[in-house]
User: Fold this.
Amino acid sequence: MSTLTSALKTETTKQILRKTGIRPGPSLRQRKTPHYRMPSLEAAGGYIVLDKYRGPEIPKSEWEDLTFTTYATDPTTFLAPITSANGEIELKGFWEYGKYDLDGVWTDNAKKCPTLVNWVESMGVRFGRVQLLRMNANTLRECRWGLHLDDNNRGNPENNGWVVRIWLELTDDPSSSLVVRPTEFDRKNEVQIKLPKFQQVVVDSEALYHGGYHTGAETRYAVIVSVESGPDLERWIESQRPK
Assistant:
């Protein structure tokens, strides 16, 4: 991508492209459904900043030595699937196999990151996608251009809990933040959640527009887990509140 093309990626440009129809609107829409949603998460505005991870030390090899892949549409962001719909190292949506984003199957990457696997299993909740993010530095402007909603609940039966995501930051950089907004262009109500090393955050990422921001020189790594809302997750969240 040329410098000029990159420089044109601003919120103002995106709004113009939306209005002219040159850039289509987001494929996902915020919606209310009968799924169970956690009152504590809704009352907090869709995100809860937890305490930092308190478990055993996680060796760097557990995030640096995994097998990564990427989407053709975003060659700058790489993901290492620790689970997938069928246990293969791929980024296909669970719905492509007639499943919804729960009951993920461990991939070969899971064998390389036992501490992270134990962290996920220690929650005691149903989980779907478990992916390790690898991302290069970006600007806040680029982050805001890419704000999006996640597709967490496609095909999820309404008698299930609403699927949300848990974020675990693995790298240590003071600039790392998760940017969230209630609507795509609502900069006034934007929140930048600081992500120091081992910070844990619960995010309703299908309700909040969000994106990662990281200006540091080092590559950024984080774990993102899809989990089912419900009493089990609520108990885990309470156990992870800052003391």
